[in-house]
């Protein structure tokens, strides 16, 4: 997976957490290209997100990836450009942070 967001605790704390919607509630599973919210405890997700590369059922509700069994809140899917996601994953990193950040220029909601 690749993760994005503000990566600054000071900035993240300025944004309130959102209600945790489990995969059991939404029916959106962590499959290849799924976009989901990163979190600590349920209800703490705000600015950090990730994109799944490959199917990741261990991130769904009921799995033991998190001790609370709530999983992560999947909310979208990459509909084109997974080759770009894979290229980002291959970029040089240091301590799991890209050496050169990649800027997201456009995100669209498609109904």
Kindly list the characteristics that best describe this protein:
6 strands, alpha+beta, 111 residues, 4-stranded antiparallel β-sheet, 3 helices, Cyclophilin
Q: How would you describe this structure to a colleague?
A:
The chain has 111 residues and is α+β, with helices and mostly antiparallel strands. The chain has one domain: Beta Barrel (Cyclophilin).
Shape: globular
The CATH architecture: Beta Barrel
Order of helices and strands: EHHEEEHEE
Largest sheet: 4 strands, antiparallel
Helix content: 10-25%
Terminus-to-terminus distance = 25 Å
Q: Determine and state the CATH class.
A: Mainly Beta
CATH fold-level topology: Cyclophilin
Number of domains: 1
* Strand content range: 15-25%
User: What structural class do helix, strand and pairing data support?
Assistant: alpha+beta
Widest sheet, order of strands: 1-3-2-4
Low-confidence stretches: none
What's the name of the CATH homologous superfamily? Cyclophilin-like
Q: Count of DSSP E strands?
A: 6
What's the helix count? 3
Structure summary:
The chain has three helices and six strands, in the order E-H-H-E-E-E-H-E-E. The protein has 111 residues and is an alpha+beta fold.
Show the helix and strand layout:
Elements: E1 2-4, H1 9-12, H2 23-26, E2 34-37, E3 49-51, E4 73-77, H3 82-89, E5 93-94, E6 97-98
Antiparallel strand pairs: 1-3, 2-3, 2-4, 5-6
